[in-house]
Every structure is written in C-alpha cells, then in structure tokens.
Design goal:
57% of the residues lie in helices and 11% in strands. It contains 20 helices and twelve strands. It has a six-stranded antiparallel β-sheet, with helices on both faces. Strand 7 and strand 8 form a beta hairpin. The N terminus and C terminus are likely disordered.
C-alpha cells in the first residue's frame, strides 16, 4: 500500500499520491470513458462548424436571399431568355434592360427625386458602379471550308477558343477615336475579368468593352439608350461575335447582400443565341468585414486552431502506426481528405477578402468595378463547405463506433463494400453502352442527350424513376424510342437496382452471422446512462451534505461492483479503424448473466448503504448520550 500511494518527488522524499477515489468525479469519468469524451469533444467541434456554415449561407430559417435572387432573375433574366439573335439582343437592351436598370420615373409617371435615382425599378436594389458590355470575337479563317465551296464561302468564322480569339480593333473611325477604330481590344487585366465557363465554350477575360455610366442624374437613361443605339447602328455585333456579356452589381441594404449579375448571350457557330442569367450573391461582411464580420473571422480562426489540434493527434498516430499502416485504414484517408477541404475552403475565403481589398468600395458611377472575382471565391468557399459538411458530420460514425448498434451498421457497410465496387465496375459497361446508343439516336434532337455526359445523367435519372425525355425520344424516333426505353428500364431498374439491394442484404447476413445485434435500448440502459446517473448521484449527495468519507465508501462499493461486472463480462476486441471491432461468444446468454449479476450486486450495495446509515445514527445517539448532563438521566 505504501508503494501504491507514495512516490519520489525527485529529491528522495516520498510524496503521497491521490487515490483513485480522491480524484474529482469528472476526472475519474473522463479516464474511464475516453471514447465518450472524444465523441463529446467532436460534437462540440461540429457545433462550431455548423455555426460557420450558417454564417456563410445565412440563417437556416431565413429565405430572403432566395427570394432576392428569384426576383432578379424574373426581372432581368426571364425576358433575356427570349433573345435568339443579335437583333433581339439590341431590342432587349433598349426596351427592357435600360428602362429597368436606369429608371427615372415611378410606375405612375412621376419623376424620381435625386435621392431615388440609381435604384433599379425603384425597389430595394442599389446599382453599384457602371454597367459593362463586353464581347469576344473570333478571327476570320478560324475554320476550314470544303474545297469545292471556297469560291462561294470566302470567309469562315469557327468556334471560340483562345487561339482563334480576335484582338484587332474594328468599327467606325472618327475624330473622337483619334483616327483609330472605335472598338479597341482590352485584356483581361484591363477589364478585371476572369475566365468564364459558358454553355458552349470557356471565354477568357479579354474582349471589346463598352460602359454605361450610372451617375444619379435624370439623363442617365437617355445616355444609356443612345449608347446602345449607336452600337446597333455601327454593327457592334456581327458574324465574328461569339459572346456578349452584360455585367452589373446590385446591393440590397436591408439584407446587406451584393449580387453580381451577368447576362450572357452566346452566339455559337451553329447559329442563333444561347442566353442565360448568372448571379453570384455575397454577403458584404464576407469581403468587407465590420463588427459582426470580424467576430466571424475570429471564430473561423479559432476553428482552424482546433483543426490543427486534430491534425497533431493524427500525426502522433502516424508516428506510432507507421505511414503505410495508417493510410491503409479507411479513417486515415478520410481524416486527411477532410482536413484538406477545410484548408481549401479557408484559403478561398481569405483570398476573396484580399481581392476585394484591391477594389474601390463603393465604386464611382462613371466606372465599372468588377466584383465577380471575389464573389467567385466566396461561392467556391461555400461550395467546398457544402461538400465538407456532409463529410464532417459523417465522421461522427468514427467517434460513435464503440456503440454496438452503430458498430453493426458500419460492419454492414464495410461487408458490402467489396461487392459494391465490383457492381459499380460492371454497371459502367452497361451505362456507357446505353449512353452511346442514346447519344447516336437523339444527340441532335432531344435535350438531355446532346452530349455524352448529359446522356449519363439522363439515364441515371431514368433509372431512379424520373423520365423527362420519354415523349421527346418517341417523337424523335418512333422505332428506337420505345425500344431503348423498355430495354433500359428493364435492365437498369428491374435487374441492376435489385442486384444492388441483394448485395446489401448479403452484407447484412454476413454481419449477423458473426455477431448478434445489440439494441439501442440495451445500450442506453447498460452503458450510456449509468455514468450520467452516477454523476447525478454525486450531485445529490453534495446537495444533501453527505460526508466525504461516505462518498468514498459508496464509490468503493460501486467500484467493487463494477470490477466484478468487468471481470465477468465477455471480452471484446476493438479494431475500430480496420474492421470496426469483432464481438465474441454468445452475447445474448452472457448479457442475461450480467443482468442477473448486476441485480444481485445492486441489492448488496443497497443493503450496505442502509447498514452504514443505521450505524451513523447509532453513533450520533451514543455521542449525544455521552455529552448530556447527568441530572437529565
């Protein structure tokens, strides 16, 4: 006992150590339940991460940002969808865009006051800076004409790419342009533009840019209309034009959101116009932080410190296990992929702030300031967080794997995983074959099969029961349409999906044959609740003013009872990261014996407590009698 309770302080003198029952209850509980502590700490980590997600997107019950984007797309985007040619584009600009973006009168004809100018539609949006109109062009001779048709087709203008982009000035020559063509090429750096992925091509940031000022004046609308009409009269858009982009920025002071709007009209070599309205919404605090934004940044920095802590723990585990053994585990690769996404999201977030800091805010109405680059990185920050949200919350399975029913679930997944990979490998050939068939049969007529990747997505939707193209398939080809549909649904829905279900059931049967499932209620009653019940018991004793010695005696008795249960409990091995543990023996019979043993021990412990209480009362009566005056007896 002396060696158990005494230690050397380094100078030769013995120092008494605290006994197990002399430690605070919370210390004893954390030492005896390390996995539960890890789960609680990680849950706190998840709560902080969820708060950061809410800061990125907004309150989970607030739908105002959605209605704001929906309104912008209805006002500007829906009329823009009707554009099918260059003439339609100019009609839209003069009849819809300019009156909507540079209004000077109310709906009843009354003119705006000076402080009401610069609010498109007189609504909740403030126009920030000027409006940019930029087009990209291709060189003459960027495609090859059939030799027999060269005489009648002297020039050919092909698809857009970086090598075929036109950079020569064009347009009318006037004194105002100092004898040079009016429309001059500007580089991506001059325009402040990034590359843009459209529906038919990827367009680089250079081009021929024209600006519509947005100064708060009564003649702003007239100036904009005049500029657009001059562009029409001078053939600003012609056969060499491959895309025209209209960019402007709106600000909603009520929601404190900036919306970068891009109206893209692509004029592919196939003819016509492909139009779409693109929007990027950014909370102003994310790129120009004030009080709340600064607090959010502090929270994110603290969160990164927590991530560094988890990374340090994983590095320690690598040093103990070795690099190869560590990364052969599922959770080893999973954790580091999770960390990589966290740091990628943070890099995108802070890069957006750096880019925004280089731009004037608020901008002058005579110049166009492109907030699209910082908005792009804020959107990518949210996209990475969106992917990582699922991964981070799924990681809770790692910290709850000691719970029997969670272990059973994970075992089923891992048991079915090898056959699932084989199934995916086999189904690829079926998907690819049917995708080629549908691409050849409907690629030039049915939307959803215009590219091979679209064929993959459409067939996947059909496999899950969504049939958006069935009527169009039959109209396109009355013979192959019904035949392909019946063949695909029969093979994919009836055969392949049922094979996948059979694989999962087979994995479940394998796990059930190895270990019997322990229910949720059994786990709660026998493993999860007792530690909390003991904590409540300790608090109740403190409130009643029980002696410390009595607490120690109770703890000793309870500890002895738990030790007996531990010695009689079935042994289990914990292979959490490799195979999520393997149970042993006939668990049902052993659990029944444990329950009987626990009832007996509880009865013995209760009797022991009653005896101690009775002995204390007898002692109190004896002390009272000893101290009493003799004449009282």
């Amino acid at each position: 006992q002396w060696h158990d309770n005494m230690a050397d302080d380094g100078g030769g003198a013995p120092v008494k150590l605290l006994g197990e029952n002399q430690k605070p209850f919370i210390v004893r509980w954390t030492q005896k339940n390390p996995k539960a502590v890890d789960a609680v700490l990680y849950f706190i980590f998840l709560v902080i991460f969820t708060l950061i997600v809410f800061n990125a997107q907004g309150q989970p019950t607030d739908s105002s940002p959605y209605y704001m984007i929906s309104n912008i797309r209805k006002r500007w985007g829906e009329p823009f969808q009707q554009v099918t040619s260059a003439g339609d584009w100019f009609d839209y600009m003069t009849a819809t865009f300019v009156p909507l973006t540079f209004p000077n009168r109310w709906y009843n004809g009354e003119p705006f006051e000076m402080d009401e100018l610069g609010w498109p539609g007189g609504e909740m949006y403030k126009l920030l800076g000027a409006v940019s109109m930029r087009q990209v062009r291709v060189k003459a001779g960027s495609c090859t004409v059939h030799p027999e048709l060269k005489a009648s087709v002297p020039d050919c203008y092909g698809d857009y790419d970086k090598t075929s982009e036109e950079k020569q000035a064009y347009g009318p020559v006037s004194d105002a342009s100092f004898g040079q063509p009016r429309y001059q090429y500007r580089t991506a750096a001059d325009n402040g533009e990034n590359s843009f992925r459209g529906q038919t091509a990827t367009y680089y940031g250079g081009g021929y840019q024209m600006v519509l000022p947005s100064k708060a004046r009564n003649d702003t609308q007239i100036v904009a209309e005049t500029t657009v009409k001059q562009l029409r009269d001078t053939m600003w858009i012609d056969r060499q034009t491959r895309a025209v982009f209209v960019d402007f920025t709106l600000y909603n002071p009520a929601l404190d959101f900036i919306v970068v709007v891009k109206l893209a009209a692509e004029f592919p070599s196939s003819g016509g116009a492909v139009t779409r309205c693109y929007t990027r919404m950014v909370k102003t605090e994310h790129i120009y932080p004030r009080t709340w934004g600064t607090l959010a940044l502090v929270l994110e920095c603290c969160f990164l410190l927590l991530i560094l802590g988890y990374m340090a723990l994983e590095v320690q585990l690598i040093s103990r296990m070795g690099m190869s053994a560590y990364f052969l585990r599922f959770w080893g690769m999973y954790d580091w992929f999770n960390f990589l996404l966290f740091w990628g999201a943070s890099a995108s977030r802070f890069h957006a702030m750096v880019l925004a800091g280089q731009l004037p805010f608020p901008p002058d109405g005579e110049i166009f300031v492109n907030y699209e680059p910082p908005a792009f990185y804020i959107v990518q920050w949210k996209n990475i967080l969106a992917v990582n949200a699922f991964i981070t919350w799924m990681k809770m399975f790692k910290y709850m794997s000691h719970i029997p029913f969670m272990t059973h679930l994970m075992k089923v997944v891992f048991a079915a995983l090898p056959d699932t990979f084989g199934f995916i490998f086999a189904i690829f050939f079926v998907f690819f074959g049917f995708s080629l068939s549908h691409y050849l049969a409907y690629g030039d007529e049915v939307k959803g099969f215009q590219t091979l990747s679209d064929c993959f997505l459409t067939l996947y939707r059909q496999m899950l029961g969504d049939f958006p193209t069935v009527d169009a398939e039959e109209e396109s080809n009355r013979l192959l349409g019904p035949a392909f549909f019946v063949a695909w649904t029969a093979i994919a829905t009836i055969l392949l999906l049922n094979m996948f279900i059979a694989i999962v059931i087979d994995g479940f049967e394998k796990v059930r044959s190895e270990v019997e499932k322990i229910g949720f209620l059994h786990f709660m009653n026998n493993q999860a609740l007792p530690p909390f019940q003991n904590a409540l018991k300790q608090l109740r004793k403190l409130a009643e003013g029980a002696d410390d010695d009595d607490d120690d005696d109770d703890d000793d008795a309870d500890g002895a009872g738990r030790e007996v249960l531990k010695n009689n409990a079935p042994a289990e091995t914990d292979e959490n990261d490799a195979q999520l543990g393997v149970g042993g023996g006939n668990i049902a019979n052993e659990l029944e014996q444990d329950e009987k043993m626990e009832l007996v021990l509880q009865a013995v412990l209760t009797l022991s407590r009653e005896v101690r209480v009775l002995s204390r009362r007898v002692k109190m009566l004896s002390d009272t009698a000893t101290k009493a005056e003799p004449e009282q007896y």
